[in-house]
Specification:
It is built from six helices and nine strands. It has 228 residues and is an alpha/beta fold. The longest helix is centred in the last third of the chain and has 13 residues. The chain is globular.
Length: 228
């Protein structure tokens, strides 16, 4: 049986987040997501997409001649064929990143894949779905991301970072503020988001072993532009 995935888009851009930020990257955005985060910026990936075979995906990726590939979504691990695609990309010689929420099992993924796992903070509205057992499978190739929209989010993330001693287990812990356009669209569970400067001040005051980041691509292109 031919292996297929439902793909929203495949494009090249620079990597806008994580320790890979600034590098040219091929993005494979898969369709479907089972979360509805209050600040989501890729709602178009909930349903839009077309079925593509692994061969068709590979042909698209090869056109760009870029060694770094990220599989993202939506939520890429919703599709059962995704782990096989990740292994196939690794076998082809690509440096492979996976952007995934903390709500799906990562234990059986190819160890060559660099996992960037987004733990959902309270203001997302989805924090109760985090699968904390995933933390034991992370290693020095992997990164954890917290998107912070309030002081409550910050304190929640700080407690996890400190209590789980995450800094010793992963390559990086990433803190970012909900991007301004999202916080301006309305209240996020009673909060309007926070300024990047405020988040940086909190991190410095608590001497947290985390990396502050901005979504670089949203400062280069309009925040709601696709395929960047």
């Amino acid at each position: 049986m031919t292996k297929t995935l439902t793909v929203n888009e495949i494009y090249s851009s620079i990597q806008g987040e994580s320790t890979w930020a600034g590098l040219p990257c091929i993005f494979i955005r898969l369709t479907f997501c089972d979360l509805r985060c209050n600040y989501c910026d890729t709602e178009y990936a909930f349903h839009e997409g077309k079925k593509m075979t692994f061969k068709e995906i590979s042909q698209q990726v090869k056109k760009y001649s870029i060694p770094l590939v990220e599989v993202t979504g939506g939520e890429p691990l919703l599709q059962p064929q995704t782990p096989q695609l990740l292994t196939s990309l690794c076998d082809t010689g690509y440096n492979v990143l996976l952007e995934t929420s903390g709500t799906h099992d990562i234990s059986k993924l190819d160890p060559r894949v660099h996992r960037i796992m987004d733990l959902k903070c309270p203001s997302s509205g989805e924090s109760q779905k985090n699968l904390f057992s995933n933390l034991r499978y992370l290693n020095q190739n992997d990164e954890i991301k917290f998107v912070i929209g309030s002081r409550e989010d910050y304190e929640w993330a700080r407690e996890i970072v400190q209590s789980k001693e995450l800094a010793t287990h992963v390559k990086a812990i990433l803190f970012s503020a909900v991007f301004p356009i999202a916080s301006q669209l309305g209240h996020i569970q009673g909060h309007r988001g926070i300024e990047a400067k405020t988040l940086v001040e909190w991190i410095l005051a608590d001497h947290l072993p985390v990396r502050f980041q901005l979504q670089m691509h949203k400062f280069i292109w309009p925040p709601q532009q696709r395929s960047v």
